Amino acid sequence: MQRIVKPKFNIAFHGLRGLAAFMIFFIHSMNGYIEHVCPDCSSRFTEIISNIGVFGVEIFFFLSGFVIYSASIRTAPKDFFLHRFWRIYPVFILFTLLYFIMNHFIQVVPEKDNIFYLMFNMIFINVFTGTPSLTPNAWTVVLEIWYYVATFFIVNSWINKKGNFLMLIGILLAAYLIVYWPITLYYIIGVIASIFISKYLIFIQRLTKLTINSIQLISLIIMLTIIIKGHDYYTWSMIISNFNVLLLLMTLFIVMILMFHEDSFLALILSNEIFLILGTVSYTLYLAHPYSYIISRKIIEYFFSTDYLIEISIIFFIFLLFSLTFSLVWFVHYLFEAKIYKKMTGKELLIPTTKI
Questions:
Q1: Distance between CA atoms of 54 and 23, rounded to whole angstroms?
Q2: Are 239 and 233 in contact (CB under 8 A)?
Q3: Cβ atoms within 10 A of the Cβ of 179, count?
Q4: How open is the CA angle 323-325-327, to the nearest 5 degrees?
Q5: CA 19 to chain CA centroid, nearest Å
Q6: Per-residue DSSP letters for 197-217?
């Protein structure tokens, strides 16, 4: 009897979130090391790895759009916003305050030592005021939060056939975000994919194993070919005039929806326990790694010179970076993030089982 995968949750997507977080962590660290410690380490190979790694941000936007659309359909307004708040805000405010306090005393970026910047960040309005995020990577989190609001307003109003004012607010908010941050188009594609799966899941599951994996493999190869070359989202004119970006969006859409087939080779790979563990701690890993990276880099810069023993310094850097990063991630996730979420929502942040 064929297994039916419910569209509200996909284990492979959870694993993909973990992979995306690891990609961003690794690439940020590699690029920072090359820029500040070993400029001679730069090569075409590191450039290719960097292009692949930064695509993790687009994956995050896609997955957020997919998940939040589903949550908007099946969750009451109060539960939706409470669960989102307690899932996101504690870790966000922890690292935002940490950055502000450290920067105030160390003055790493003096221009960010501004109490108004802190206030704007704490209530997520820095995307409207044009002021910077106070913790690295948090700009994507803030954009996703406002997309969550917009998506729920639109979907909930549409389902209940009322609340036209909220729907209008949601549409205007989404329009503002997509105009000024074209990269968030991936969030919209994620929403579209979620709608598609809710309607046509049964047709995907009827495809043969050979068909599903052939299409997914070809799409994945096309995706990687485009990503390796690099791609820009600074303006809409760049996106519209560049067919490769549009092709990238289409192939990503195909790869993602085909992961709902039980015989998808990519879904099977991403359902590995390592990816699932990373998926569970992905949010903390995403926000925490810049701090462990800077500490690791400063230690290496102090004890090693780029003029000698560069191979040894790289080994020490990787060992120190991974040790500090995952110690910090474990501490923040299990002793702070997960405990607060369970206390305030009654739910646990668990590693999902690979059994469907």
A1: 7
A2: yes
A3: 10
A4: 65
A5: 10
A6: HHHHHHHHHTS-HHHHHHHHH
Q: CB of 56 within 8 A of CB of 137?
A: no
> For 259, which DSSP code?
T
CB 230 within 8 A of CB 248: no
CA separation for the pair 279, 353 (Å, rounded): 12
Question: Using alpha carbons only, how large is the chain's radius of gyration in Å?
Answer: 21
pLDDT for 355? 46
Residue ranges of the chain with per-residue pLDDT less than 50 = 1-7, 355-356
Residue that the structure tokens 């221009």 belong to = 111
What lies within 8 Å, CB to CB, of 162 at 6+ separation is none
The helix (H) or strand (E) run that includes residue 219 is helix 209-229
* Other Cβ atoms within 10 Å of 348 Cβ, number: 9
Please tell me whether residue 97 adopts helix, strand or coil conformation: helix
